[in-house]
Write a structure and sequence with these properties.
Structural class: alpha/beta
CATH architecture of the domain at 157-210 and 242-272 and 342-578: Alpha-Beta Barrel
Number of strands: 29
Distance between the termini: 91 Å
CATH superfamily of the domain at 157-210 and 242-272 and 342-578: Glycosidases
Helix content: 10-25%
Number of helices: 15
Largest sheet: 8 strands, parallel, barrel
CATH class of the domain at 157-210 and 242-272 and 342-578: Alpha Beta
Oligomer: single chain
Radius of gyration: 27 Å
């Protein structure tokens, strides 16, 4: 078999119907060898070829006799000088950074490290043993796929409801998913799984990482795995563990089938992506891919001692966003997932790291410039987790126009309010109205705020109201990992309880959180399983728990089914009420010459809140009127948007408060839509006149809509 010069672009392994072009970037390598493997069980390569050409620091070659399904890797020659940042070791087979599929996972052994494990000089030593029997392998794919009539749903931001889920955890125990498809892309794309999403009313699924990742050796030694997947090894390859098919490259086709099925149901697919660091860890980590290909180019090294890595992520390394080839890798990856895999958007993990040009976070950095100018990426949903672990990394509200953000300030303010903290009401009100203090000045809209109360990282909603302290003992770190304290309130009793009063309080608090989330301006995000009252038994950092602690349980009791029905009802209410989907910030001003403001806050006496009332120390009860019948917004075609006027009442005090409903003339009557203190919602909900009184129980919320009756 003879290798021809081939082309330097595109990077990766590309089959053209007659053969495969291989191209890989390495600025500092002296030689790159392509290694072909016969099977996933092979312990040595069957063929090895020196790539014959180097163009613009890209090594490339073409093999006319290679077909899809071929397993391959690279051996990259160059200096092993850790003190200078170079960690080349041609004894190690490394994964192609542009691999479209991974055909074999890492098999842990000491040979997977570029240095001799246990040597007195640690990573300064060189391990010359061959790792071919243990290395992860890339696979050549056939990208052809019949998309038929598939279209991106393109749900407007203001109508979006996001559901954060784990592919395996969502489907592993679902009774309606065929057993052979549970835990897989095919399982998520099957009728039963999609039916739950449609019945719930969400418009987008945000998939926890599906880029192929590596389980840290430390975890496998404890018989654990990196279940969440925030330890990326390949930015183009879908995780093979979520594929029901086992033939190399089958994960790509199955992922596409899942996307096609979700799109057919009108559901968008958003990927949680981790471009801030890789699974190779710090200077004592393994040599899997980037480290052995060009460590100096791909990673941010300490300017004082390039043996070590700058770590803004807490994961040992940070991708070098200052290098143009790293920027190219990330943008090529993003475009691939949009154009080839047809996803609809991305949530960027620890996104502040991507904006670090030198040391500080720069919202005008190269990464953002590229995204904003790209005709493909600028048109999809872009969500930032606006913080990292470095100095100045907390950047909520500071990302540029075009980006939405996980609003951690919303989460904390809502939790504090329903815990009953004094002094929390002013910020709570701001967060409920879309956090204009964070986003309006930069020209962004309410949808810049991705509102959430819980996410994968932390307590489930059930545990939020059931535990004050974390219980992460199963993680094997002596309960030291995870956030130390909850900011909810659970009657002083932790975990399951037979006390009916405490159980009822917890259920009410769950309803309060869900109601608040779905009544807030901005984009709501629910954590998968919260609607099912899923518990992780107090574990608030279940990143390594690939078991029934994390998998969703679908055998619900009567109370859990009632709560599921409540969540569905709240999402339906949000989707039916334009006033809850505002595209502009509320101003608290009169609309078009009327005597009605777009938003008005009330105290329990039915009077509008004054500055003195806002500054009072322990306000725990207030009301909010959203004027829907005189909205000053138009739709995409220019037609005026009108809806019902809603009245929201919230009481985070322990005692029942008689709330005088504000008058709304002429002929206005308030019809109760729901009350979180009610165990069952009456079909014939009470209708009260303006200035009527509603007994708002402690720790509860109620919503009314305005009905106008003929005089």
């Amino acid at each position: 078999m003879r290798i021809w010069p081939g082309r330097p672009y595109p990077l990766g392994a590309v089959w053209d119907g007659a053969g495969v072009n291989f191209a890989i970037f390495s600025e500092h390598a002296t030689l790159v060898e392509l290694c072909l493997f016969s099977s996933v069980d092979a312990t040595v390569e069957t063929h090895r070829f020196a790539l014959p050409e180097r163009t613009d620091m890209v090594w490339h070659g073409y093999l006319p006799d290679v077909r899809p399904g071929q397993l391959y890797g690279y051996r990259v020659h160059g200096p092993y000088e850790p003190a200078k940042g170079h960690r080349f070791n041609h004894s190690k087979v490394v994964l192609d950074p542009y691999a479209k599929a991974v055909g074999r996972n890492v098999r842990w052994s000491d040979e997977m490290y570029g240095y001799r494990v246990g040597h007195p000089t640690h990573d300064l030593s060189l391990d010359a043993r061959d790792n071919a029997a243990f290395a992860p392998l890339s696979v050549v794919i056939d990208s052809a796929f019949t998309w038929s009539e598939d279209r991106h749903p393109r749900i407007p931001w203001h109508k979006t409801v996001i559901y954060e889920l784990h592919v395996k955890g969502f489907t592993q125990l679902h009774p309606g998913v065929p057993e052979e498809l549970r835990g897989t892309y095919a399982g998520l794309g099957c009728e039963a799984a999609i039916r739950h999403l449609l019945d719930l009313g969400v418009t987008a699924v945000e998939l926890m990482p599906v880029h192929h990742h590596v389980d840290e050796r430390l975890l496998t030694d404890r018989n654990l795995t990196n279940y969440w997947g925030y330890n990326t090894l390949s930015y183009f390859a879908p995780e093979i563990r979520y594929a029901s098919t086992r033939f190399p490259g089958g994960s790509v086709r199955e992922f596409k089938m899942m996307v096609r099925a979700l799109h057919a149901a009108g559901i968008e697919v958003i990927l949680d992506v981790v471009y801030n660091h890789t699974g190779e860890g710090n200077h004592l980590g393994p040599t899997l891919s980037f480290r052995g290909i060009d460590n100096v180019s791909y990673y941010r090294l300490s300017p004082k001692d390039p043996r070590y890595y700058e770590d803004f992520t807490g994961c040992g390394n940070t991708m070098n966003m200052r290098h143009p080839r790293v920027l190219q890798l990330i943008t090529d990856s993003l475009r691939y997932w949009v154009l080839e895999m047809r996803v609809d958007g991305f949530r960027f993990d620890l996104a502040s790291t991507l904006a670090r040009e030198l040391h500080a976070v720069d919202k005008l950095g190269s990464f953002f410039d590229i995204i904003h100018q790209d005709p493909v990426l600028s048109q999809v949903k872009l969500i930032a987790e606006p913080w990292d672990l470095g100095e100045g990394g907390y950047q909520v509200g500071n990302f540029p126009s075009g980006w939405a953000e996980w609003n951690g300030k919303y989460r904390d303010a809502v939790r504090r309010f329903w815990r009953g903290d004094g002094g929390a009401v002013s910020e709570f009100a701001t967060r409920l109205c879309g956090s204009s203090d964070l986003y309006e000045q930069s020209g962004r809209r309410p949808h810049a705020s991705i509102n959430f109360v819980t996410s994968h990282d932390g307590f489930t909603l059930q545990d939020l109201v059931s535990y004050n302290e974390k219980h992460n003992e199963a993680n094997g770190e002596d309960n030291r990992d995870g956030e130390s304290h909850n900011i909810s309130w659970n009657c002083g009793v932790e975990g399951p309880t037979d006390d009916p009063t405490i159980a009822a309080f917890r259920r009410r608090q769950q309803r309060n959180f869900i109601a608040t989330l779905l009544l807030s301006q901005g984009v709501p995000m629910l954590r998968a399983g919260d609607e099912l009252s899923h518990t992780q038994r107090g574990n608030n950092n279940a990143y390594c728990q690939d078991n029934d602690l994390s998998w969703l349980h679908w055998d619900l009791d009567e109370e859990q089914r009632a709560f599921l029905a409540f969540v569905r009802r709240m999402i339906q209410l949000r989707r039916q009420q334009p006033v809850l989907q505002r595209r502009k910030f509320l101003q608290g001003r009169h609309i078009r010459g009327s005597d009605v403001k777009d938003i008005t806050w009330f105290d329990p006496s039915g009077r509008e809140m004054t500055d003195e009332a806002w500054s009072a120390g322990f306000v725990r009860c207030l009301g909010l009127r959203l004027a829907g019948d005189v909205m000053d917004e138009v739709d995409e075609r220019g037609d005026r948007i009108a809806g019902q006027t809603l009245l929201l009442l919230m009481n985070a005090a322990q005692e029942t408060i008689s709330f005088i409903l504000p008058d709304h003339q002429p002929n206005g009557h308030w019809k109760r839509l729901f009350d979180t203190s009610a165990t069952k919602e009456d079909d014939e909900a009470p209708t009260l006149p303006g200035a009527g009184t509603h007994a708002l129980e402690g720790w509860s919320a109620a919503v009314f809509c305005l009905e106008r009756k003929k005089p």
